[in-house]
Structure formats: C-alpha cells, structure tokens
Recover the amino acids of this structure.
C-alpha cells in the first residue's frame, strides 16, 4: 500500500528509485512489491523507459470507490431518465484531487466522435464539466489543481478577465457549455448539482454531436438538464432554488 500511495502521490510515471524513496522502503523490497503489483494489474511499466505507473486495476478500484458515493447513486437514476428523454449521452462527474473525473456515462442514441473513458480526468478550463466545478468551488481548492493541469498543458490559459466572464455566465445561467473545445465535433452542456449545504456535489452533462446546435435543440436540452439538476439537488437536500 505504501508503494501504491507513492505512485499516486507522484502524479505520473516514476522510476524505481523515486518510488522507493517516497515509500520509505529499500529498492530491492520495493522492486519485489512492484513485481506483485504488475502481475495483478495495479501497476504498469513502460517498455521504453522502465518507469512505473498506476495500472488498470488501480483505475477500476478508484472508479468503483467514486461510484459508491451516495451522491452518484442518487444522481444516476436521474441521469438515465435524462438520457431517455433527450436521446443524448449523459455524464456524471465528481471533483477529485486531480480535477473533475467522469464516474458514469449513459450512452445515448446518437454516435459521438469519441467515447470518453470512465475515470478520465477532464480539463478544467476547456470542458463544460470543469467550468461548472470551477464556477462553484472555492478558488483555494481549484487553483493548485488548475495550475498543475496548465503546467502539463492539459488545460488552457485564459486571460483572467475572460475566465471571470465565463464563470460569471455559468453562475448566471446555471449551465456551462463547451462547443468542440475538448473534442472536435462534440458539444457538451453541463449543470451543477448541490447538496444540503448548497455545496456543489456532482456535475451532470449532456453530450451531443455538433449538428445538434440549433437554438431549438439547445433550448430544449438546456431546459431538461436544468430541471434534472434541480431535481437531484432537491433529493440530496439542497434548499429550493429559483
């Protein structure tokens, strides 16, 4: 577990020496643990560099832990119903210590340009889900994670005044939008879900091919999304919102 914790805290592929130092173990013992973790899929090793990283079993464990959060279970029923009403793919996301992470996907009837994997970490500035979290979470919580994404070129740099304008629009309208900014040909509209203390708990998003971007489609989907987000918030105990 100390080896896995070292890999998690490292934030990316790591050499054996660094894993050993971070876990407080001798390199020989660390290597033996890594061999066992490789066999069970909790760790992978890059063939060209020899660096170690968290493997598919670790990702599945993390996603399952997120899925069991009560807020996700409550929102999941509404997400499926929203998919059935709109015909479009619906996402649920939680905020994690790496940024917004997808924890559920209800596939719609319309093919999308790409299928986003459950457990994926989304760019905070460029995705509508990221913008919804950024607009409603406290800056001391989001700032270091956003800065880390920007250092790794995983999220865009927007001028402060432009970012403030985008986030104000999210708070005013109740939704965040992204039109092809993450994946070309994919438009996503997202809304925050709040808990009993009016703290954002989950973000729910509707993804659609870019051809569904006329005003009538957008208004209908936005209305369904807002109604769903408010219904989930009410079920989680959030005070009634206008």
């Amino acid at each position: 577990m100390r080896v896995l914790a070292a890999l998690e805290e490292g934030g990316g592929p790591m050499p054996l020496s660094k894993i050993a130092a971070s876990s407080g173990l001798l390199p020989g013992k660390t290597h033996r643990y890594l061999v066992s973790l490789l066999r069970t899929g909790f760790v992978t090793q890059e063939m060209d560099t020899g660096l170690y990283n968290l493997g598919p079993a670790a990702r599945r464990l993390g996603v399952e832990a997120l899925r069991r959060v009560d807020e996700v279970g409550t929102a999941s029923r509404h997400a499926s119903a929203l998919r059935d009403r709109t015909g479009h793919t619906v996402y649920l996301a939680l905020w994690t210590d790496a940024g917004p992470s997808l924890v559920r996907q209800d596939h719609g009837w319309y093919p999308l340009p790409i299928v986003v994997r459950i457990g994926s970490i989304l760019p905070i500035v460029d995705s509508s889900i990221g913008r919804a979290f950024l607009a409603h979470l406290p800056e001391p919580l989001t700032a270091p994670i956003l800065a880390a994404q920007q250092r790794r070129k995983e999220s865009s740099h927007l001028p402060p005044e432009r970012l403030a304008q985008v986030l104000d629009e999210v708070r005013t309208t109740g939704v965040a939008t992204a039109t092809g900014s993450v994946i070309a040909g994919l438009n996503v509209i997202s809304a925050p879900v709040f808990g009993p203390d009016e703290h954002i708990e989950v973000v729910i998003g509707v993804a659609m091919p870019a051809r569904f971007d006329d005003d009538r489609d957008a208004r209908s989907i936005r209305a369904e999304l807002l109604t769903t987000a408010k219904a989930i918030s009410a079920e989680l105990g959030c005070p009634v919102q206008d």
